Amino acid sequence: MSWDWAFVWQIMPTLLQGLKITLLVTVLGAIVAAVLGLVFAVLRRSSIKPLAQGTSVLVQFIRGTPLLVQLYVIFYVLPDIGIRLPALVAGVIGIGLHYATYAAEVYRGGIEAVPRGQWEAARATNLTMRQTWAHVVLPQAVPPMIPALANYLIAMFKETPLLSAITVLELMNQAKSVANSSYRYVEPMTMVGVFFLVISLISVALISLLEARYGRKASR
Amino acid sequence: MGDWSGYIGLILQGALVTAQLTVMGTALALVMAFTAGLARLAPFAPLRWLARAYVEFFRGTSIFVQLFWVYFVLPFAGVSLSPLQAGVLALGLNVGAYGAEVVRGAVLSVPRDQFEACIAVNLSRFQRMRHVILPQALPLMLPTFGNNAIELLKGTAVVSLISLSDMTFQAQVVRAQTGSTLIPFATILVLYFAMSLLIGAGMRWLERRVTRGLDGVRT
């Protein structure tokens, strides 16, 4: 089967419609992941042992099981206990929850990378806990986290096609429906690949800029 | 309701397919990781470009897109693959691309003087890799390889969408037949988690094996 440019232009509006949803899911999912990741990271540092351990097991469990199955659980199981979510919301929560566990690791790594001496110095100069975090720890912990978080953002973007399995009309799903109705698979599937490749290559280039700006050298 | 033992059997059959996919996919990924990772360090430039293109392409598009492309587009080019072959191919090539960067990074982190010492004692390129560089680089690769293998295991769930009857697919079958949602999905979540714990434990064991005898080499 040969490549048909006319067909590509014909399906372009549908694909762009799907791309819009893909990007929307990525942004919303990233917000959920960033916030929930912080919650996980804080709970893991909690001085209440069972709480810290429970969170740790939960994080490990989420990281050790497939996102697709987690999406199924949110989309199919929750309605049975009375929580009925629209597909898009279920998708955002699923992908956000999954990547929150990765974000939590990044937060933890960033905070632990701040040398002990800094904590002790803050204590020695009689800073309050709030001051210690706001003026000593976070300014050193956050910059190295940025490139790592950005990497997971791209990884998350690339996992959004999974949402087509729970009927979210994102890029992959639009391409599939176009392909199914026209019996032409080559153009839609290839275009989806091209969209993903172009967007991730651009993002990777942006990340190397971020890395040059923030990576490693927290002490500017 | 009713015949739960039958449904459990169905899910266990799926677990076998998932395990099969994971093992074969990991094998292909390992081969690809070393081939592409070492090719990225080759002295012959076109080989480096080829490896670079492979890595960027497979890391840039998602496993899902690659799987669908292999399964739906390749037949038009005359290559028809069974769902299992398509799954192993897509998973292996995808994870192999991530692995290639790990191999490259680990080889580069072996200190320069090790390379120089090899040249000084007149080892061939192959001898240098086989006996000096890789034995030191391998322990650095293993932890990341372990994570990659777990990512691959999680990736296998996607093949259920091209009608391969893995664990996720079978759970959907059970859901369709019984109308029960919690039990099949909870079962496979636990099974997936057990498998990923198993991979993690296996990797830690392997790490201990390959670092044996290296004490004192690295600080």
Cα-to-Cα separation, first versus last residue of chain A = 57 Å
- Give the mean pLDDT of chain A: 91
Largest interface pair: A-B, 35 and 38 residues
**Low-confidence runs of at least 5 consecutive residues of chain A:** none
| Protein structure class of chain B | mainly alpha
Structure, explained:
The complex is a heterodimer of chains A (220) and B (219). Chain A is mainly α. Chain A has a single domain, classed as MetI-like fold (Orthogonal Bundle). In chain A, 79% of the residues lie in helices and 0% in strands. Chain A contains eight helices and no strands. The longest helix of chain A has 40 residues. Chain B is 78% helix and 0% strand. Chain B has a domain of 147 residues: Orthogonal Bundle (MetI-like fold), CATH 1.10.3720. Chain A: This is Ectoine/hydroxyectoine ABC transporter permease subunit EhuD.
What would the keywords be for this entry?
heterodimer; A: mainly alpha; MetI-like fold; 79% helix; 0% strand; B: 219 residues; mainly alpha; cell membrane (chain A); transmembrane transporter activity (chain A)
Could you give a quick summary of the protein structure above?
Chain B: It comes from Frigidibacter albus. The complex is a heterodimer of chains A (220) and B (219). Chain A contains 8 helices and no strands.
